[in-house]
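Repro case for the chain-ordering regression, as requested:
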Amino acid sequence: MRLLRYAVLAAVCLLALAFPQLATWADQEFYISVASRVLIWGLFATSLNLLVGMGGMVSMGHAAFFGIGAYVVGITAVEAPQWSGALLVLPLAVLVTGALALVIGAISLRTRGVYFIMITLAFAQMLFYVFISLKGYGGDDGMQLLARSPLGSLKMADDTVFYYLVLALLALCLLGLARLRDSRFGRVLAGIKDNEARMESLGYATFRFKLTAFVIAGGMGGLAGALMANQNGYLSPNMLYWDQSGTALVMVILGGLGSLWGGLAGAAAFLLLEEVLAAFTPHWQIILGLVLLGVVFFAPRGLAGLFARKPR
Amino acid sequence: MKKTLLCIALAGALSASAQAADKIKVGFISTLSGPGGVLGGAIRDGFQLGLDHAGGKLGGLPAELIVEDDQQKPDVAKQLADKLIKRDKVDFMTGIVFQNIMQAVQGTVLGAETYYVSPNTGPSNLAGAGCNPYFFAVSWVSDSYSEATGKTMTDKGLNKVFVIAPNYPGGMDVVNGFKRYYKGGYAGEAYTKLGQLDYAVEISQIRAAKPDAVFFFLPGGMGVNFLKQWHQAGMGKEFPLFGTGWSFDQDTLAAVGEPTEFALNTSHWNLDLDNPANKKFVADFEKKYKRLPNEFAAQGYDAARLLDAAVRDVKGKVEDKAALGAALKAANFESVRGAFKFNKNNFPIQNYYLRQVRKDDKGRFVNKTVGTIFTDHQDAYVSACKM
Amino acid sequence: MNWIFFFEQCLNGLQFGLMLFLLVAGLTLIFGIMDLINLAHGSLYMIGAYLVATFAQASGSFMLAVALGLVATAIIGMAVEVLVLRGLYKRDHLSQVLATFALILIANETTRAIWGVQPLSLSVPAALSGSVELLPGLHYSTFRLVIIAVGLAVAALLYFVVVRTRVGMLVRAGASNRQMATAMGTNIKWLFTAVFGAGAMLCALAGAMLGPLLAVQVGMGENILILAFVTVVIGGIGSMRGAFIGALLVGVVDTFGRAFIPTLLRTALPPSLADAAGPSLAAITTYLLMVVVLFWKPQGLFPAGS
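-- result from build under test --
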């Protein structure tokens, strides 16, 4: 079983690395940008998985960071073009969304459970309504980017180059998350998820741990948003809307809560399913719904659960 | 593995067909699901009828229509546009309903020098400084309808008008078009939340303000909600209601019914426009789809007819982009709106009509044309277009 | 500002609040007793509205259509409970969210497959349309008065049920005390099904009351679902009293926000700034209200079981 897991992992990594070459060889370059989109959604879902799966904080407002990350790219391109290099604007997106997460988290984390779901949702919806009426930044029409954020001498307009940038950033984030999970911080977070009162009585300042996780997840979500704006050359308040948060949450549950690969697996499965089913019948959402129901009842630990170690 | 093989086979087929140009591929991205799906469905039905009337061909060549649903999500639309252009290598694109979707795919489509014929949305930036040789609209600029409404209300000598619209830049653009031609005074203005459900507050405000008339622009479901509540409160008897044609298209009239009766609205097209092309369109549309067409369907139909004419004019040589552009611009087809021609920004110079919702002899609510507001009207942005 | 206008806006607030209460009551019932987060609540509301509209067109009678629609929606609700939701009570909230999200997709797409994409029309009998003059100079929509009456009647009925009956005891025991509920007897399974049917019936009632005022179309459920959840959270999840007061609070705050914020801002700020900020601020008042309430009372105004 263990061997199989490593084999699958190695195959996935190889496929990810060689994908642009395979696509070019098959004369299907279009699928390179599809793959980038899957990876970016994967990053976004992974950041949410840190909150939901590892910290037990179910947020329905994660789109706030996705959207604001994108707007950092859009607004920088207009207001301060000299800062629009990827090396500046991507860290800026992480910083801004991290700071935003600090504020939202500090208020929201006073609540728990469904209250937490709804208060995070409220923050994202408020931002949605603010940006939809901001004429200076396109309002409902959103903003078009003239070019992707430049990075040294790399040809960012080339989908293959951009794909590898996204892949590298995603790999970095996954690596960081893996280390975080096995660190003292990660173990405390897991403890809080299981039984917050016990961790508190053991003397841990649980609020600070949760807030830290919230800020990291927010910054990572912001990075995903900034990449998505670059991928599409376009951003709009739609990225702040609650259905984006909902989609990411579905991806996480589908992929596997708390599993390192859950976010990525869920994003890939969800987007693929959407693509395949939509080609099959106009009423594809019925089938998607049935598949999701099937996951709830027959694969409660998500896709990652199918490959995972036996529960500890 | 199967998929890869399939891809290779497909790629082979593609490269073979590229040289022959033996068929015309049209990429049609539209909003077909969700509440906005009514509009996309009407455009698609109209476009399909246009193709049928040309014998399923465009300019004599077999036509392949690839229909995709953008779900009213900009990022989905963007990926679909990528797919149609890079993988399917379509000759034309059309179909988009909403302005923010157009903004999302504009760079991809026009950047690839693919001709886009808009069967609906007409963003003002594409009509003005951002005009583009690859973008043609068989519809209007987003504020043309409200310009016509403003003109009508000025002509009627109204001097105390209440304005209600949703608070987002697209809504404000429409209101600004109205204000460009409405010269009277205002009883009040209300700007509501996008997607608002309940309009009791605004209806109370209108009643308290005692206006001569009301101009409203509330697209989609918001407009339906407003009309129902307006009627429910018995406001129609006291205050005349003016709107844009979008809120009184035939599908809305059929669905909302009585609350729409007597409302005045503006459009560039109507069921009863007296020209042979329109008579044939309306009759055949009703025969095929068992309902009356609306302006969205008419725009879809005209888009198909325009493509047919342009491909015929270049004798199928769609690779010659310059000649194809000139052929599109010439617009050698009988439009259901009657005579029109493209301005230098590739938007129509056309008439706008005043319509009123009445019951027809079969008891259906339909628009009756009651006047011509503008003749050969040009939009407000064309002077900024350097094309 | 004149008093008639102010009073009319108060009525609007009350009416909007009771409209919300019709939706929120079913949600609270289901959450309070079964500890189930039902995202598909909005779908039941949509199905209710579609059925009432269809029956009204077929029979020509609004009242008959409402009766039939209520029964039919309750049956559909109970079928869904038996087939799907019953397996979810013991699961965590996240599984419930995913499963009921799946139900939304299925319900929306099935509705579109059956009724098509065009919105349906639903109008009320002539006797209820138009307006009545409540006070000299104060005209108010008759149908909105009916909504106020129905909302108050449902509130009174639920109050009676909650205070006087065995089902009510379960509600009062609250979401936090499910073990006690399960310990109450072997018939609990069917009791749950019945409660879910009642919740679905309340949804259909909301659909029938709102259908003549709002577009009956696919997606109408999600538009209002978020507002319903905001209301539940402000009041305190699972608490019927909280649902009632939360609904009224949201109704009044939203109405007053829209009616008065833009005018008030214009007296305090330069006109251009006030015109830009006013409508945006009015659009987010309900969310602001929720954040403020949860900041001071993280369990909502009336935490269940207290």
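Ordering looks correct now. The CA atoms of residues 237 and 304 of chain C lie 6 Å apart.
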